[in-house]
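Support case: user asked for a sample of complex input and structure output to validate their parser. Sending the pair below.
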Amino acid sequence: MKLARFVLFLVGLVAGGPLLAPTARAQALDRAGLIGNLCGNASAMGEAAAVLTGLAMSGDAADRAFAVPLARAVIDRKLACDEAGAVLTESGLDAVTRAPRPAAGEARTPVLSLKNRATYELADAALALRAAPEPAQRAAALKTLERRPALIPEGLLDAAAASETDAGLKADIETLAQTAALNAADPAARIRALARIADTPSRRALTKVSALTTDPAYAASPDFRAAVDDATLRIERGIAIGDVLATLYNGLSFASILFMAAIGLAIIFGLMGVINLAQGELIMIGAYVTWLVQQGLRVAAPSLLDWYLVLAIPVAFFVTAAIGIALEASLLRHLYKRPLMSLLATWAVSLFLMNLVRVVFGTQNLQFETPFYVTGGVPVIGDFIFTWNRMFAIAFAIVTLALTWGLVRRTPFGLNIRAVTQNRDMAACIGIPTRRVDMMAFGLGSGLAGLAGLALSPIYSVNPQMGQNFIIDAFMVVVLGGVGTIAGTVVAALGIGQINVLIEPLWGAVAAKVIVLLMIIAFLQWRPEGLFAVKGRRK
Amino acid sequence: MSLTALLVDGLTVRFGSFRALDELSLAIDYGEVRAIIGPNGAGKTTLLDVISGITRPKQGRVLFDGAIDLTGLSEAAIARAGLRRKFQKPSVFEGLSVRQHIAIGADVGFRTRLDAPALEDRVGEVLEIVGLVDQSHRLAGELSHGQKQWLEIGMVLASDPKVLMLDEPVAGLTDEETERTAALVRALKRPDRAIVVVEHDMDFVERIADRVTVLHEGRTLFEGSMDKVRADAAVVEVYLGR
Amino acid sequence: MNRFGLFSLTAPIVHLIGLIVLVALAMAGLAGTEFALSRYLANAIGQLAAFAVLAISLDLIWGYLGILSLGHGLFFALGGYLIAMYLLKHSFEITGTVPDFLQFMGWKEFPFYWDGFEFFPYALAAAVVITTLISGLFGYVSFRSRVGGVYFAIITQALVYVAMLLMFRNDTGFGGNNGMTGFTVLFGWPMGTSGMITALAVVSLLVLAGVLAGCNGLVKSRFGALMLATRDDETRLRTMGYETLRLKLIVWCLSALIAMLAGMLYVPQVGIINPRVLSPELSLEIAVWVAIGGRGHLVGAVIGALLVNAVKFWLSFAAPEIWPFILSGLIVLVVLVFPNGLMDLAKFKLMRPMGPKRLAADMGEARP
Ligand SMILES: Nc1ncnc2c1ncn2[C@@H]1O[C@H](COP(=O)(O)OP(=O)(O)OP(=O)(O)O)[C@@H](O)[C@H]1O
Ligand SMILES: [Mg+2]
């Protein structure tokens, strides 16, 4: 292993010599001169190769397109040099003008020296990587380059990565760029590469950099050693920061879902003292409605398919709200002051809805399109990627929070909700139609559950049982947050969401649930009313 | 035995930023019937809540018998010390019979300590006092409002309390029932017992009370005999002024 | 006198207890003869009896104390798991069969906490102690902070859910998601024979009769009156000098122990225990049995459990997929139309102690 690296290093020193400064290039390409060199002696051919490699890195696209067939033609001996210049024998085109013409007179095919063969192969791969039309061709070119990382000119891979359109290939190019730069012959280039790698810390970068401690230069050159150590330190710090951010980010997205699942519960609980055990199924139905909207668009308006997540928002809200209102009007209305019985009744509804969906749609997970706005993400630092699907859930929750808050705090309907929550009898006395308020609030709470289902469909699997996964956590949010307060729900959702993701990597998901439950029980010792209890008269 | 049964000292109770009781102090002696009156929301029920341990005050103490600070004790411990209270809203156990109520009140504990005949005697005695002998086997949930009031009074006096607190004992009763209740309260008066009555019915208060405390916005507005209360300008202002 | 006294001979509960004992004796007497019940039927009766015991345990705290637990499956599972440990260890001692889950985990021997479980008295004592500890601790912290009503119901549900997640793990040494099965020997006798099935059913019936009689004695006693008083107005009772925390704790632990007992009866009869008994659904179903039978009536709880489970047994052959729909329909019906379950149907002064007015009201719930 070590030996191989060393041999590579030596080869690089020898073979890479002429290539070290290929960037020095004339402003406009002298096409005829280039072809002349291709047909010239060994040293002229070497120069021509350098120019070709240089074209792969910079220069305009037309020149690059012009250069692409040349190196290949020389390697494959498909170049015929004659008085008028040269002809590409495969296509029968003039090498300079690219007009069809036959080779004139005594055509000669240039022969590559052993040394030049390597440089031409390099030039060919470099050009193909930049300019080949098919990703597969570019990938093959990358493979060729990978074999000789030490030979790859500095800057080539960066340029290739910048113009690459295929995401997977791009990542591969970037990886190779790092490896190449780290193994470059020039110690200064290596140190520069180290600094650059340290700018984008990741676990892969760390493996690569720490491998350099066994490099001969590490022992030999104090500068190199310092650069490696410094890079290691910075990468480690970056990874640590990235991990913390990733945890917080995951916690935040989980908390968003929890919040959306719990806010409806909390409003209903505050208002009527009823815990809606069917809330999880309303979430599930929200997700199914989203899926149905997607399927509908697929048939009716395929061009809008990407926007189904947005278009489904009102549909999911109103469908679940309607179910909620129907539920309230037909069932819960008769169970006032019997909260435990309404617990059973809503469980019956939950059982019914879950099995209904199971019968109608089957038990398998639904397949969702992933529109571009929830695809991929932005790598930030370390292994932390700011993924759009989670951001979608977070943004969605924030918007929901703002709207709910506005609705409860700033509208007459919200005022009614708050009045009935605080004192139902008094509210009834001053003419608030409490029953209507109940019904509408139940609709609101259910609609919010539907939105939660929509928001989580890009992240979690959607099936008839999914509601069960969220409902108990959502209850815990309500218990912790206190009855019917938005602020309490937010804080409790954030707390439980973060604690869950903090504990999970350490002791596993089950332990996280156990610990959250124990903490809530302990918390209730201290504040039985929850975090933000609404003060009311002892009844 | 000290003469002061209850010494309320600098009591403050807050609900949020609202002060239901505001550094309230007062003393209630053994042998007296003390009426506490005041407009709605004056803090009368809140005061009884603190004394019986249901509400914890922010500040201040309640000394019972000059020695025991009640503010740190549980409701049950306070009751076992000899303080009993009837609630403003009739609070009876709907699923139990009248007799069971009295038996539960007469002898505290998961098992009876009195032997069966002694307990029976006591229950019969109390039923006699509150006039519910004929109802003794009915469920409390089936009683009329007035009967529930008396049942609750019977339940709390069955234990022979040293301090008896009655929150609006005649609210919703007919004149005749009020009459009987007044007689009952007078009959319960004993040298070793303090009786605290919260009431809005002034005629009733006049008939039973030795002294009257007027509460207003969590503070004592006036203290004295009923005649003086009627004559006091500030009290009249509070009652009629708004 | 009447209310504090024990039951009279005409009370329906006496008839029910008599009937149960009679069935048990008949089954025992006819065992081995041509009149003996089929194995399947005998086994079903035994399982139903275990469920009836479970229903009584919940009725005790919900119907009489007003505390709804949606996590009673936890205690049921405790009994089930601990008896399963006895059965496996005992079977291993006698026949040398190594339980599946040990082989599955690649373990050579039982984890240390299985020590002693081959002795039934030890297993029984462990079950009692562990159940008392867990229910006592949980009850204490909940009741102390006056958590009740819907809060309590939800937290118990979370408790049983978390327990289920825990038991689904394979590394706990309790069988993981496959649970424990393959019981071959009980008290030295082979399991699965007709004799054993009948014996287990008879024992279950007798235990049911005993639990019924014991609980009836309790709820008709002075202590039972205090339970009802706690249910109706806890603050009122506290301000009369009663430590309701202690009372609730005693009844709660007793209820947990009865549920545990039900689990101990149940598992040898079905021959398997796995974490699914800890699913919140099962715990909710117990509440449904009680609600359908009528809360606050021991007879009602028993009849509710028998009826619902008999239908469920039957449907699990006929049409398992429609059971959830029937169950939810039943619940809605009971909740809306018959708030006191079957007791509303059986109006003919079957259940005097509650009185008609009380029947109409919803029992044991926070009033406005
Ligand atoms: N738990 C509570 N939370 C918030 N406010 C309360 C609470 N308990 C009492 N209050 C308020 O404290 C004030 C005093 O109440 P309290 O019941 O003591 O009055 P009161 O003198 O008994 O009146 P009434 O004659 O109407 O019974 C009232 O304004 C009441 O609304
Ligand atoms: Mg009052």
